[in-house]
Write a structure and sequence with these properties.
The protein is mainly β. Strands 2, 3, 4, 5, 6, 27, 28, 29 and 30 form a nine-stranded mixed sheet that branches. Strands 31, 32, 33, 34, 35, 36, 37, 38 and 39 form a nine-stranded antiparallel sheet that branches. Strand 31 and strand 32 form a beta hairpin. Helices cover 1% and strands 53% of the residues. The protein folds into two domains: 327 residues, Methylamine Dehydrogenase, Chain H; 227 residues, TM1070-like (Hypothetical Protein Tm1070, Chain: A).
Length: 581
């Protein structure tokens, strides 16, 4: 039977999305380059799928028996792929996830020792690095690139173009992982050894491990160099990683957590397949998100995960293969993608009440956005613009890229980054380790700016079911010439629909009025002066969810009518108090 990349949607039932809000599990055909006609090979293979720098990369081969042809493709949307131009002899040139840094992509050949570089992701040029199969991540210290070859050769470069051979891991063949614990310390290891160097001359290796070591995968985050069974901060002291509750195929880091993908067969005949996204902050315990279960796995087939790290800040994609049980041997039949996203993946931060708009009393409201990347290597932030008063299922977005330690600030982010006007929210999601975000909405006057900090909202900060958000210090004088005015807003933190009610009270606890909003995907609303018809010097408000499976941010903006100076009031989240009906 001919092995092929699946060209149609897999007809299996998927159920069981868990309470942690995740999008329904999608089952999609594996991508195929639109500019490569399909031949009639004995076998087609999709070796890997990855994401870097705003592009998706896929690596393929076709086996005609007497000849195996390898090629690669790239896409900006994850759906439509085009062939890339690889250097001669590149082989499976995009098997490993590329590194994107300062406008260029870097990737290693799978079948030879060279590195290659591209400024557009489509056209690649070989770099002068000569090692035996660089099968490990390309590291960036903030000052230089570091790569390790199949036999432990170490090369460095200050600019990605000019490379120097530094050393070789002594008496080692095929290190299974390499990575940087910090900018000066290179950590290496395999099934029978582990260790580090701080100067690329002296090596500190343990060649007798206390037990079996499976260090075939690696990720770095939260100060940990993280492998499948162990973790270390410095390469000296190694601690165990808790066993995951499901079969973990590989892991990487996004936001504040390590993410792993896996699945396990269940049922009396092992014919059902449950899919999991596993997360952990430090490897001590795992959070198991059971995304769904295939209920109609055909007899005689097993399913496994391919090589994929396709997290782009919006969706997480599994590359899966189906294999037949044939005389005790597995034969790959088809490749397909499983796609999902969850509300807290990548540790998204919502910044509500950003603006490029005119306000009352000749105020002109603008918002500045500051981003900082404290993590290792290269970082990426996905910034999405969510205008108020409408659902935002596919918001306008921009990506901002960093080297370790870099910062950027946009003085008028709504206009400068999106070319937009009006008010809304920004959602900032980390594609790799966390990017720190802060925002300031200010009144731009002839005498300078009068601003208010925008309180960031993570998913766990949001007000959910059986919780209350309380706003205090609200005020409206009823007269724009004196006192204060207050605007109040709520923002849906996810794509699931949610109905919100806000109940206003005066200083004596008497009700002043109510507002309700049915918020769809990433929808927000800000009410202008909801207390203007019931002026109150001191007032409060309760924010609660009436129905729906999501969480909301809630805030108030209190502005001095004379000076135009404002301050942001963030809702305090409490368990249900039962004091307001």
């Amino acid at each position: 039977m001919r092995t092929s990349v699946l060209s149609g949607v897999l007809l299996l039932a998927a159920v069981g999305v868990q309470a942690q809000p995740c999008t329904p599990m999608g089952i999609l055909p594996a991508p195929w380059p639109v500019d490569r006609p399909r031949g009639n090979p004995r076998q087609e293979r999709l070796h890997s799928l990855s994401y870097a720098g705003g592009r998706y990369f896929a690596d393929y081969s076709e086996d005609y028996g007497s000849e195996v042809t390898s090629f690669a493709a790239t896409s900006t949307d994850g759906t439509t792929f085009h062939l890339v131009q690889l250097p001669p002899g590149a082989g499976n040139g995009l098997y490993h996830q590329p590194l994107y840094l300062r406008g260029a992509y870097y990737a290693s050949f799978n079948s030879s020792g060279n590195l290659m570089r591209s400024t557009d992701g489509l056209h690649w040029q070989a770099l002068p690095v000569y090692a035996v199969a660089i099968n490990h991540p390309i590291n960036w210290t903030g000052e230089q690139f570091v790569v390790t070859g199949e036999f432990g050769e170490v090369w460095t470069s200050p600019d990605g173009e000019h490379w120097t051979y530094r050393t070789q891991v002594p008496n080692v063949m095929r290190p299974m992982f390499t990575g940087l614990a910090d900018k000066d310390r290179l950590v290496v290891g395999g099934t029978q050894f582990r260790g580090y160097t701080e100067d690329y001359a002296t090596w500190h290796l343990e060649d007798e491990l206390p037990g079996p070591s499976e260090l075939a995968t690696d990720a770095i985050g939260n100060g940990w160099f993280f492998t499948l069974l162990e973790k270390t901060r410095d390469g000296r002291i190694w601690l165990p990683v808790a066993a995951p509750p499901a079969n973990l195929e590989y892991d990487f880091f996004a936001g504040r957590e390590f993410l792993g993908m896996g699945g396990d067969h269940s049922g009396p005949d092992g014919l059902a397949l449950a899919l999991h996204v596993l997360t952990t902050a430090n490897g001590d315990a795992w959070n198991d998100r059971v995304l769904g279960e295939f209920l109609t796995v055909p007899p005689g087939l097993i399913y496994s995960f391919g090589h994929a790290e396709a997290w782009d800040g919006k969706r997480l994609q599994f590359l899966m293969t189906s294999s037949s049980r044939d005389a005790g041997a597995n034969r790959i039949e088809n490749y397909f993608l499983v796609s999902t996203s969850c509300a807290d993946l990548g540790d998204p931060v919502m910044l509500p009440a950003v603006s490029h708009d005119d306000g009352a009393n000749q105020t002109q409201w603008r918002t500045s956005l500051a981003l900082h990347y404290p993590g290792p290597g290269a970082g990426e932030a996905l910034v999405q613009w969510l205008p108020f008063g409408q659902e935002n299922p596919a918001p306008q977005e921009k990506r901002i890229y960093f080297s370790t330690g870099e910062s950027v600030e946009l003085a008028d982010v709504v206009a400068d980054l999106f070319g937009a006007t009006g008010s809304g929210s920004l959602r900032v999601t980390s594609v790799g380790p966390a990017v720190v975000a802060s925002a300031r909405t200010y009144n731009d006057t002839t005498g300078g700016t009068l601003g208010q900090e925008i309180a960031p909202w993570r998913w766990d900060d949001g007000i959910g079911k059986d919780e209350e958000g309380w706003l205090s210090g609200l005020s409206d004088s009823g007269d724009l010439a004196t006192g204060f005015r207050t605007n109040v807003g709520v923002q849906n933190l996810w794509v699931n629909e949610v109905e919100v009610e806000v109940v206003f009270r005066d200083a004596q606890g008497l009700e002043l009025g109510r507002r309700r909003a049915l918020l769809k995907a990433f929808e927000g609303v800000q009410w202008y002066r909801p207390l203007k018809d019931s002026p109150a010097g001191v007032a409060s408000a309760l924010v609660r969810i009436l129905q729906g499976d999501s969480r909301v941010a809630a805030w108030a903006s209190r502005v001095d009518n004379r000076s135009g100076d404002g301050n942001t009031i963030r809702a305090w989240k409490l368990p249900w108090q039962g004091t307001v009906r």
